[in-house]
Structures are given as C-alpha cells and as structure tokens.
Design goal:
binds flavin mononucleotide; homodimer; about 40% helix; two-stranded antiparallel sheet; ten-stranded parallel sheet; FMN (chains A, B); alpha/beta; FMN-dependent oxidoreductase (Nitrilotriacetate monooxygenase family) (chains A, B); Diverse_substr_monoxygenases (chains A, B); NTA_MOA (chains A, B); TIM Barrel
C-alpha cells in the first residue's frame, strides 16, 4: 500500500480519441480508432506509464445520428471489445482490460463466460463495464420494435449482474483435482448450479469455465441517472462518469457513497474515475491553442449529430443561432440530456454553441501544463471529488504520448501515481479485494460485499 | 495453384484432445485443454507445420452427462472461442482461426460484429463454425424451458446466416474516405442497412464495423442430419463431420455436392474436412499400443456419459453387458445417435463396448506409421472421400508433436500438403473465392454463390 492516496488512471480507448475533430488534427492518425497497430502501440505505452486499465466502450448500432453527422464520424467502424482486448492481452502483461457489455441485449451465460475467459487469458486483468445501452437504435438490431424503458433496463441490469456473478462462482477455486491416477478431474461437490428464476432471467448453470483468477472481473458502471447510481452503489467497484465540473463530481461521489452506506457497503470498495479530457503542452497558451485547433475541426454537422444523440431528440431543423427548444423526456440515457439542457439554461448557449460543445467533448477537460494539470488532479483527489480519472486523449498518437511523457512523470514525482505496478491483477492495481465465492465461502468468512449482492 | 490436389488440414483444438483418456496419458499435460501456454505452443507448432486452421468447438452448458462422467471430464472447463482465438491471433501470422458460434442462442448482430472484428484483427484469418447447439441443457442456460425442435433450429440457422452475411456487407469495401481536409470520414452512400424482417429474426443494421478483410469469414458447418446437410449445401464453404468410415465419408461428400448442384452452387466452392483422430508412431505396433493405452484410460463412467450424450438418452441403468435398448428420437443431434445405434446393430456391441467407443472417439481414426497414414489419407483425397481432415490429436503435447514431426513431412514429401503458405487469409489457404458484397457488387459481377444465399 502506498503511503498516501494515489490516483488511479484508466485510458478511454474506444473511441481511441472521443473528440469528433481528433482524426483531423495535424499529425493524428485518421484511422487510429480502427487500427490494430495504433491500439497495440497505445496499450504498450499506457502499460509503460503504469496505467490501471485500458477501457473499451461498446455500441450496438451506428450511433444514432443523421447521415450528415455519420459521414464525419471517425468511430463509425470500431473493433468489438472482447476480440480486441483478448488480442491486446497477448502483447501486454500488467495493464487492466475493461470491456463494455450490455445487460439489455446480451445473455448472462455468454457474458459470464467471455469475461471469465478474458480474465483467465490475461492472468486476472479483466473488468466489465456494465451498460444498459441508451441508444434507441440498438433495439432495432436485436429484434425489438422499440427501446425498453429506462428503469426496466436498470431492473434487468441488477438481476443480470447477480446472475453473472453467480455463474462466475460455479466452480470453487479448488474444484480441479486432475488426478491422473484415479481419473478424477474435478470434484463435483465443488460445482454449483445457480438455478436462477427471476423476473427477467432464467439461467440454470453451472458455467462451463473455471472461476476467474480475480474471483470476479472488476465490475464497472457508468450510469448517472438515479437508477444508474443506485445500480452502481449496489454493484460497481469502479464508476466512470462525465461530470462537467469538480463540484458535480464531488456531489456525485458523495451521493453514490451515501447510497452505498445505506445498503451497508463499505465505501472503500469503490473507485470513482470520471472521464477527463486531457490536453497537455509545455505552456498554457500552447495547450489552449491545441484545444482551440481541435474544436475548430468539429464540423457543424458532426456537432449537431452528437447533440441530437445526447438529447435523444432531433434539433437539426431549429435555428442554429437560436436557443434550445423544450426537450421532452425519452427512454434514452438521462444524464447526457440533462447536461446539455443545463448548459443551455445556465450559460445561455445557442444550438450552434451547444453543438460544438457536444462534438468536442462536453465533460470535464484538463487543459494546461503538466504542473497545472497535476495541481488540479491533486485537488480532485484531495477534496474527494474522485479517486482518479478515465483519461480521454485529444488525438492519437501525439495526444496520448504527451500525457505519458509530460503529465505522468509529474504525477509520479509528486507521489500521486505509481512508478511500478505493485500487483498483477486489475483488482490489485485498484486496491480492491478479491470477492469470495458465494457458494463456497472460506471457512471463517467475514461478511463482505460479496454476500450482499 | 498447386499442380495436383492437396490436402487441407485443420486442427481440432477444443477440446485440445477429444479422447476422454487423453489427459491421463503418460507425458500428457492433464491441464492442456485450459492452458493458455499449451494453446500458444500448439498453435505455433501448427503454424510451423502450415496447417490451414486452428478450430475451436464451443458448448453452452456443461456437457449433458451424469455427475459420475462429469467428474472425469478434462473439458469441463474451457476457454471461450472468440477470446482465445483473438489472443492467439496476436502470436501467429498465417494460420486460420475457426470459432464455433450458435445460431440458436446468440444474436446475429453480435455474431457478425465479433467475427468481423476477429477477421480484422487477424488480417483475414477468421472462420465461423455455424452450429445449432444439439445439447438440450443449453436451452436452460438461456431462459428456455426446453430445447427448440431440431428442424426449427435449422430454419433459424438458415435465416441467421443470411442476416449475418448481410450485416458483413453493411459497408462497401471502399466506403472509407478519411479526407481530413473536407472532414468526410465515410461515404454514406456506401453503407447499407439490411432492414431484415423474417420469421425468426428482425435486424435493422447497418453493422458498426467495416467489411471483413475476407469479405466474409469462411462459413463452416458440422451438421450431419438431412437438415444439417441442406444448410451446409446452401451456405457452408467448409464442412466438418465425423464419418465412421471412408465409404460413409464418400457418400456424405457426394450427397452434399449433389445438394449443391441442385441449387446451382459450384461444387468447387466447398471443402469437406471430416474429423480424423490420428495416432502416429514409428511402427504400426507402437501406434496400436498407444491407441490401446489411451482407450484403457477411459473410465467406464466417462464412456457411459459420452454414450448417453451421443444418444440423447440415458442408458446408465441398463445392464452394461447387455445390448443397447430401443433409443427414441429426440430433438438433440441425430447423427451421433444414429452412429451409435448402427454400431450396436452392425457389430453387436454391448453397452460397455459402446461406452468405450463413445469415450475414446468413435469417428474415423488413422492409427499407424507416417507412411501407412499418408497412404490412407491419399486414398481419401484421390477417391473423393474428402478434401483433407480436421485432425484430432490423441494427447497434448506429444500426440500433436508426432503428427507434426512425423506425418506432415511425409505428406509434404508426397506433394500432398503445402510446405509454405501461399496466401495470407484462411480463404486463400483453402482456395476459396472472396465473396463480393451483395449490396455493392463490382461493376461486372459474374454470378457467384454470393448472390444465391
Ligand atoms: C465514460 C463513459 C463511458 C460510457 N461507455 C458506454 C458504452 O461503452 N456503451 C454504452 O452503451 N453506454 C456507455 N456509456 C453510457 C452509460 O452507460 C449510461 O447509459 C449513460 O451514462 C447514461 O446514464 P443513465 O443511463 O443512468 O441515464 C458511457 C458513459 C460514460 C460516462
Ligand atoms: C467435428 C465436429 C465439431 C463439432 N463442434 C460442435 C461445437 O463446437 N458445438 C456444438 O454445439 N456442436 C458441435 N458439433 C455438432 C454439430 O454442430 C451437429 O449438431 C452434430 O453434428 C449433429 O448434427 P445434426 O444437428 O445435423 O443432427 C460438432 C460436430 C462435429 C462433427
């Protein structure tokens, strides 16, 4: 354990660079989001810098945007998370590998098996970003006429996580005997079938893969609505998010931790790592110029596409230089809509200004020198706004290299970030306990969160 | 193109060794089926030997067998195919990677995306073994009370393959513009949504990943019933199978090719590679002894478990030394049941003898020296019994090494097997054409099978 609290850093790598102007930035690889070579290079650099994890978002439809925006999207083609992360597991040794998987459009048996397999292949480095899939177009790709209600999605998600963790516990850690003499390979008394019958899911079990090295891959969540926060409080070990300000982060963090306390979960079993767009340069001016250049590369059509998708509502035919109209509730994600609506209300932004904000990343950004950003990050850590960040790079490869070559050494100098990995697994990097097996508890089991899920 | 016809060789690697005594064989790694290290070593050796492909079966339940058999199964824990093959894609360059995926228990959008991703990550080396999942226990893991009817499974499979190949065709091969100057990344006129509405599936599309390097990953099938053969004739480019004799293989091969002719498909667009269990040694006696040793390591409980699962019917409480009772039709796979019933009828085997046959691999086996096996394989090739084999190794690593060190060089000496890969993709290894895009056909499209699916 480190002497004082340290930052945890994830790298948000799908899209490789989230900013819609990223691929046009001078010196950027326009193809980075779909280049195995850039992904391999990036993860090796991130591992060299001792990042906690490489994070892959996932979407189950072309992003819901009009053609004019779609044609400008550099993330229109992307790798699928399990296949990419498995390939990258073979060329890395320590860095965590977090894959996004949907509880709305997949089956718990598949999800449990794939994450267990990734965890075994990587020696305990897997994490599951549990999403309920806010994009309404996804439903049309999975046989539904329309999207499931927001709260129903979260109800199903809760049950889904319970089933998946139960499936991971199918085999006791010591189930495998492998006695060639007697011919006994596995002790059948050390295998458990969950036989789950719930409102959304029926799953018999057992899973046909040994318990993951981490017990369970790390559970990650990014929901921000009350239902999303509640699910996170009940199940998440890492929360990603996109708070617009340090104050918003602090109150989110406090809210989730009080929800945890209310259900008897120890607050120390959670790491909150909000998304942070980082532009670092040798001077503040240079950093601001870079950000401005990037933002200038966001095409209006692209910005309005991002805005529509965040609002869950099409504002393309309103006056770009007028105010945002009234936006109705939809069943898509709520938090992004609220962020945009608040921005419009509080700063009086026009649709054109909102479109640029949406297309150029509207969450929190650190723009400055290594020193100024390290100061800010330290403030986030010390005032309990977060436990670190899920870093979003402005472009690939240069924007990532500058974070690694300039910012990380400064954080290390201050003792805010590790110089070496202390452990081997993602749980160890994050300082999270290994869950015990709910069906095969150790002899003197102390009550931990494991048993409360 | 080679001067005369050559063998194609796949390696059946999940289970790493299919024989239920394999893990107990002297010198075998009892953990081979679930050892990344053995998998990595195996695939590198197979690539060194220029095998066409590494093949991963997949099952969606613990095999349906009684506890007494289950506890003796070295395949009770296995890697999931996409994760393992993606990891192995990173440590190999040429060998094909065939993953099994079920059309009964998965969604076409997921399957299309994962295979496309694996094909991109591996530079065009992916293949899809299309299965309908015969194991009735799988249904219980996916929310169903009972298994879908055999023929309904195949109806759905046909539609599923059509949807998946349609999703692969979502982007024209030249859709990506990536013009940083104008900010146009993709040409929207070169993206197509299938908008499929069929009896089993509704899928809007488009897929959010570029068309695979191979156009479509190679379509593989292993069904053996009339419905299975018909699906293969309509869609498969490679057929695996488990014929018990060369005559059975020849008639199967002829049957499928006549089904192809009946629907206007060119017979040369199919490779038939039946499973072949290969035990090679320096003398015939030694080879026979090895096989006998292996078979002696099959525990009766394990054999009866395999037999029950092949029959889709539990015969455990019948007299082991009596005849096989009447076996009713079930909705599980038909061909395995028929094989066992015929074996009992034709050779008058008792339940105990059938159990040993089931547990020790009941399909065709080549047991002998490099010369005798090469003679036999040549006969299969020259008499149109098959286009090669899906090799099953008796144990890992020694049994695999002997095939590579003894048999392959003999096949190469005879000009029956490549000494170097001529192409880069699995299609190229197999001599199969790259399908054109059904929505974006080349200007002077010749009618090929692509358009007939
Ligand atoms: C950093 C971050 C990453 C996310 N990644 C994904 C993703 O990969 N796939 C997805 O469907 N949603 C993703 N989301 C969306 C969330 O899962 C969630 O739907 C959204 O934050 C809205 O929250 P709510 O559903 O609780 O309203 C992400 C959100 C954030 C902040
Ligand atoms: C070599 C070989 C490999 C197979 N691999 C799988 C597999 O991985 N998963 C699966 O569910 N079925 C697998 N099967 C079973 C077939 O898909 C099919 O269900 C079986 O041959 C019965 O055929 P039928 O369903 O047409 O009667 C395999 C069969 C063979 C011969």
């Amino acid at each position: 354990m480190a002497k004082h609290r340290q930052l945890h850093l994830g790298a948000f790598m799908r899209p490789a660079a989230i900013h819609t102007g990223a691929w046009r930035y001078p010196g950027a690889d326009p193809h980075a989001n779909f280049s195995l070579e850039q992904m391999r290079r990036s993860i090796r650099r991130l591992e060299e810098a001792k990042f906690d994890a490489f994070f892959m978002a996932d979407h189950l439809a072309l992003l819901n945007m009009p053609i004019a925006a779609l044609m400008r999207s550099h993330t229109v083609t992307s790798f699928e998370p399990f296949t990419l992360l498995s390939a990258l597991s073979a060329v890395t040794e320590r860095i965590g590998l977090i894959a996004t998987a949907s509880t709305t459009f997949d089956a718990p048996y598949h999800i449990a098996k794939r994450f267990a397999s990734l965890d075994h292949l990587s020696g305990g480095r897997a994490g599951w970003n549990v999403v309920t899939t806010a994009n309404p177009d996804a439903a049309l790709n999975f046989g539904y006429e329309s999207q499931m209600d927001h709260d129903d999605r979260y109800e199903r998600a809760r049950e889904f996580v319970e089933v998946v963790t139960g499936l991971w516990d199918s085999f006791a850690d010591d189930a495998f005997v492998r006695d060639t003499e007697s011919g006994v390979f596995v002790d059948p008394a050390r295998i458990h079938a969950i036989s789950h019958k719930g409102p959304s899911l029926k799953v018999q079990g057992p899973l046909n893969i040994a318990r993951p090295p981490q017990g369970w891959p790390v559970i990650v969540q990014a929901g921000a609505s009350p239902a999303g926060r509640q699910l996170a409080a009940e199940t998440a070990e890492v929360i990603f998010g996109a708070p617009p300000t340090i104050e918003a982060a602090r109150s989110f963090n406090a809210d989730v931790r009080s929800r945890m306390a209310a259900i008897g979960r120890a607050p120390d079993t959670l790491r909150y790592l909000p998304g942070a767009f980082v532009v670092v340069a040798d001077s503040m001016n240079e950093a601001l110029e870079r950000r401005a250049t990037l933002d200038s590369l966001v095409h209006y059509d692209s910005g309005i596409g991002s805005l529509n998708s965040m609002l869950g509502f099409d504002v393309s035919d309103h006056d770009p230089d007028g105010p945002l109209p009234e936006i109705p509730e939809t069943e898509a994600g709520r938090s992004q809509r609220e962020r945009m609506v608040n921005l419009a209300r509080e700063k009086g932004l026009t649709i054109r200004e909102l479109a640029r904000a949406a297309g150029s990343y509207s969450g929190f950004a650190f723009v400055g020198t290594a020193t100024s950003i390290a100061d800010e990050m330290q403030e986030w850590l010390e005032t309990e706004a977060s436990d670190g960040f899920n870093v979003m790079f402005p472009w690939i490869p240069g924007g990532l290299d500058e974070v690694i070559d300039k910012l990380v050494p400064e954080l290390q100098r201050r003792g805010l970030f590790r110089r070496e990995y202390e452990g081997r697994t993602l749980r160890e990097h994050l300082g999270l306990p290994r869950p015990s097996n709910r069906f095969f508890p150790p002899e003197h089991e102390v009550l931990t969160r494991t048993s409360s899920v």
